[in-house]
Every structure is written in structure tokens, then in C-alpha cells.
Design brief:
The chain has 2 domains: 94 residues, no CATH class; 58 residues, DNA Binding (I), subunit A. The chain is an alpha+beta fold and 189 residues long. The longest helix has 9 residues. Helices cover 17% and strands 23% of the residues. Strand 2 and strand 3 form a beta hairpin. The strands form 2 sheets. The protein has a 5-stranded mixed β-sheet with strand order 1-4-5-2-3, with helices on one face.
Length: 189
């Protein structure tokens, strides 16, 4: 493939993907390190460039086909880099509304209703921090009832103890919690 043009401007997506698992209109691909650990989630076009430049191999396709004048390639869903890439840091998922709601299943951790707000278990006014173990999703009613008190002071019980997500949960956070079922062997859920 070294003699072929590396630009994707001439490629046209032919056919449809097997299933529409993604939320946005951009199809994504999972990039694995040479050791098969997840590295990142990228647009399919970026994954195609990695394959065309012979930096990665396609492990799983999504059923669609990319065509140019000279080449027809299956659209990748999972690619594996040919060389190991050292990651010098541990990924951390930020504590924000989207990721806390995702962790708590969009449910109030006090009553089980649909969550609308974030709540600090130990209020910030009492020295509570904005960390994974102190922030939960809550409905407006429970959040108002609790106010600036602890759950015990307000007479509320937590459905589950808030916890920090696993180290590989960044994949789910990167794509809003839904991922292609073909990624399951490579991503722990």
C-alpha cells in the first residue's frame, strides 16, 4: 500500500454499517496497543489512515465498505497498532455531570427517580470535596430535601456507595457509554 495515495479525500463510503451503535453521525473505531490494551477511540477515517500507512491492522470491521478509484477497504471497528506505544500516564475520568450520571445510570442515588442534579454527599460547606467518592446523581426533590446537610442529617439513605470508576472506564466515558458490541472482547465493562 506504500504506492497508494494516503489521503481519504477520494474515498466514498459504500453501503451501510451493520448496526448504528453510535450516538452521533460519526462512526468510531477502537484503537488497541500492540498488547491489545485500549488506547483511544477515533473516527473511522483516522483508523483507515492508520491502516493505509501500515501502522495498524484491522481486527474487526463494521460491515461498511470504503471505496476509492483504486482501493476498496472494509470500514474498521477495531484496529491494533503494529508497534507498542508506551503510555506515560494513567488515564483519569473527570468528575463531571455526564460521567457521574453515566456511572449512576441517570438515577437518583437516594430514591431511584430520574436524576437531574449532582449532589455532594458531604456538602462542600462542611469540607466535602468534589471527588468520585463524594459526588452522586440526585433528583431535584431529594437534592432540595438534603440541602446543605449530610444524608444522615437529612434522613436519606444512599442506594449505593459512590465509587471511582475502573481505570479502563475511560472508553465508555469517551463515547457516552454506548459502544459497538464488537468491542466487548477488548474492553472490560
Amino acid at each position: 500500500m506504500s504506492g497508494q495515495q494516503l489521503s481519504l479525500s477520494g474515498f466514498i463510503l459504500a453501503g451501510r454499517a451493520r448496526r448504528r451503535w453510535y450516538d452521533s453521525g460519526v462512526s468510531r473505531a477502537l484503537v488497541l496497543n500492540a498488547s491489545l490494551e485500549p488506547l483511544s477511540v477515533v473516527p473511522v477515517r483516522r483508523a483507515l489512515v492508520l491502516v493505509l500507512r501500515e501502522r495498524a491492522d484491522v481486527l474487526v470491521t463494521n460491515g461498511a465498505l470504503w471505496r476509492s478509484e483504486a482501493v476498496a477497504m472494509p470500514s474498521p471497528s477495531v484496529v491494533r497498532l503494529k508497534r507498542y506505544v508506551r503510555v506515560p500516564y494513567e488515564r483519569r475520568i473527570p468528575v463531571n455531570r455526564r460521567t457521574v450520571f453515566q456511572r449512576d445510570g441517570h438515577r437518583c442515588q437516594y430514591c431511584g427517580r430520574q436524576a437531574e442534579n449532582l449532589d455532594h454527599v458531604v456538602p462542600r460547606s462542611q469540607g466535602g470535596e468534589h471527588t468520585w467518592t463524594n459526588v452522586v446523581a440526585a433528583c431535584r426533590r431529594c437534592n432540595t430535601k438534603k440541602g446543605g446537610r449530610t444524608p444522615i442529617e437529612a434522613g436519606l439513605d444512599l442506594a449505593s456507595v459512590p465509587r471511582q470508576p475502573r481505570s479502563d472506564s475511560w472508553v465508555a466515558a469517551a463515547i457516552n457509554g454506548s459502544f459497538d458490541p464488537d468491542w466487548a472482547p477488548y474492553v472490560r465493562t
